[in-house]
Amino acid sequence: MRNCVFFWLSVFALLLFSGCGKKSASPTDTPSQVASSAQRNSLSDEHLRGPVMRVTEKKYMAFDMEGVLDSLCFYATNQMDYTRSGWLSFCALTNDAGDTISVRKVTFDEKGNPIKNELFSAAGQCDNFSEYEVDARGFRVKETYHQGDSVVFTQNCRNDANGNVLEISVTQGSEQYTIHHTLNAAGLPVYVEWRSANAPAGEAYMSTRIEYDQRGNEINRTTFLNNRPVESNHTHFDDQGRLCKEVYHSDMPTHTLDIVSNYSDFDAQGNWTKQTTFRNGRMYYVIERKIEYYQ
Hints:
Helices cover about 5% and strands about 60% of the residues. The protein is mainly beta. It has a single domain, classed as Porin (Beta Barrel), CATH 2.40.160. A hairpin with a 5-residue loop joins strand 4 (about 100-110) and strand 5 (about 115-120). The radius of gyration is 19 Å and the shape is globular. The protein starts with 10 loop residues before the first helix and ends with a strand.
């Protein structure tokens, strides 16, 4: 489900959103003022409201015996720092003893655009990093992802006049494929297709359909593999636009998975401070977070 370090992120989501590169505030309430994908940043992607400076999360794993919660065990702390323009700049994950597990650092150019994203191990070694290139307007046009001394993949973005991604061309080793984005009037992707360079023209092996509410918040996402639905994510917001629930379902040939996250205990800015997640009907973990804001 949510969050950059605590939860696994699929390659699909990485490729879908990594093309965005312009700074903005969070989406507004009126449909005519919905922020396009090019205008969004780390805060809006995480549904964080207000001038967030730092988020500190404490994660507790649940011991759920036969549907009855036995106990919660403190697992890790995650600290995330953000720039005034809303970009993630630093992320540190520590275990229950306070020892560092990993550190992520983001470097920016003189205009405040992210240009490098590095992940360091507990020993301080850079395990992998991404380098970004932006055009004169600050929109991301290329990403090169490195693992050690090797380039894992490169992706080049073709954007529209407003900087919204229309197509991403990916080279990963000897494989090449493209990701086509169909946008709505607000500049948000509503249909995404993955096409291999070796596939017949116009044939997609994977696709995703996305729906939004009037505020521009994503509420439904369904991914199809060879025209078969394999993943769905439904996101619920209350009348004030606050994130309150996410329901994820995976229906792969080898297994099914259901994850439900409930968000509660909102602060004055409307950001949740408690997340309770269930996996296949049993409590999985609890996250409590403290949010600090720029003055």
